[in-house]
Amino acid sequence: MTLLLGVDTGGTYTDAVLIRDETHVIATAKSLTTRADLALGIGAVVRDVLAKAQVSAKDISLASLSTTLATNALVEGQGGRVGLIYIGFDARDLEVHGLKDALKGDPVIVITGGHDHSGSEVALLDEAGLRDWLAQDQGVSAFAVAAQFATRNPAHEQRASEMVSDITGRPVSASHHLSSKLNGPKRALTAVLNARLIGLTHKLIGRAEDILQDIGITAPLMVVRGDGALISSSMAKERPIETILSGPAASIVGARWMTGLDHALVSDIGGTTTDIALLRDGRPEIDPAGAQVGPYRTMVEAVAMRTTGLGGDSEVHFISHGLQGGVSLGPKRVLPISLIAHEAPEVVLTALDRQLRAVMPGEYDGQFLRAVAGVDAGGLTARDLAVFERIGQGTHAMDQVLMARVEALSVQRLVSRGLVQLSGVTPSDASHVLGLLDVWNCDAAATALKLFGRRRTGSGDPLSVDPAAMAQIILDQLTAQTSLALLTVAFGEEQDPYHGAPADLASHELLHRGLSRMPGLVKIEAGLNVDVIGLGASAATYYPAVGRKLQCKVTLPEHAAVANAIGAVVGRITMRRSGTVTAPAEGVYRVHFIDGPKDFISEDVALQALEEWLSAAAMADAQESGSENIQVSANREIKRARTEARDVFIEATIFVEASGRPRVSH
Question: Contact 573/662 with Cβ under 8 angstroms?
Fold first, then answer.
């Protein structure tokens, strides 16, 4: 028997799952994510899942982790100070692809060197200038190195990396290790971000390994890459940038394992966002432009994921224009009324009853505030500080906190700083009113929805006098916005695309007439022609209605709430390598090896030499990451031009993939 442990650290919860013999989930657990030290939450959830399964830690054969650390760190601007060594480029290139913004004032040196498209040296590497710069204490935790056309000849990046190690002893990220594609400034950006993350990732993975060992788990630790594949913890420490979008990638792998579906849209709804990706031929679609994280477009292979600000805790907004009025949801998250009333019932229920007795609806009815403990409140303006101190440590109705209308802007700033939490009506409250959920305070949710429904539409009538009807309006809007997001992704992934922007096509009136089967002289029928896999704790509540609206099958796996943790441990180790053959002169075929270019006089011999080298390198990478029973596949893309009645070789790229399951301990 083999026992596999999967762990996922999300923004709110850290999940764990135990799988027996790679076929059966035997226990799951959730624990609050400990933002200050993620490893503490990992330890708590692992101990919990082991206790639930009543198994010994020493029986675990493999452990694997998917983490939001890299993604969140880049979005939030965290990470160490780095130094960039920029070889053979013009200093003005630092403005390209946001490289200057990503450096955030960190030191950079631009020196001569680099190669051309064919891999020939353009200028000598300025080793003296680099040595003088490195000899000075730049105050950085790691270095990034990027040279012109390093993917065609990495000699200058390799030499600069050697000098960094010899002179400073600090970690170094070379751009050609992270991507084999052209576009130097974009590779440099990827190397900078990787270097920035090295310290954070070393700390997290090292702490996680220590805690697992303290618990008694001696099995190897794997980490999920952004494309859903697994890599060893040691490789993740060296290339942390490859773990961005690790969590969403793990959810897709988990969805495929739980359902067996090879072709589906995977939609993962959380409290704040809905993440949607396409599963095609059993694999997640990879973003061809590279992973986008916050403002940065990297060269990292990662799942093509569309994130929409729509979740179970999305803020409900009143739409007053139009005779009928209505609601919209998101993109911000608020605490559900039912939850804050569960935690502070006297304050919340008393305030809701007071607001309901008022003759006219109030602007801030059904909204509450509470401070976040342990957050630095330095740097506030006098007005913002006064509002913050008025909120104090308790829970308050917003209409009793604000002394003037302008203070509403102070509340917005306090919320955006993470100092204060705002509570309001959410889809979770609507679900409580309709009996779909029963975990928090249903009475508070009903009163809040009654208050919300008193607001007047353009016709002068209240939006809804019945809390249940108001709840249905909210859930219908959640269905509509989820359906629109799924349709937008589907149109964007069409291999034979329609004319028009995906978002415009998804919202077209004719499409929605077809979805609703509206009668008329022209018969229009439409539906989503692919299954939807609904993930997330609330998917079972919301997604059946989405399936009915889109005329498609929705699959809701039994363990949808811990799909990320499942995907973290059931994936495969997959290593990819690619290389290029160019033609600097007729009859000359130049293979761009990692140790420099080499010329051949035969196309077939050149292609075979490159494929054999790439296969061996990918195989070695997979073995180093702990894979066994490795399978290797190769694909060639050859460009030719027709001239003077014959085909002329221009360039060829060979892609090799080595894949296998991780080796487990016995």
Answer: yes
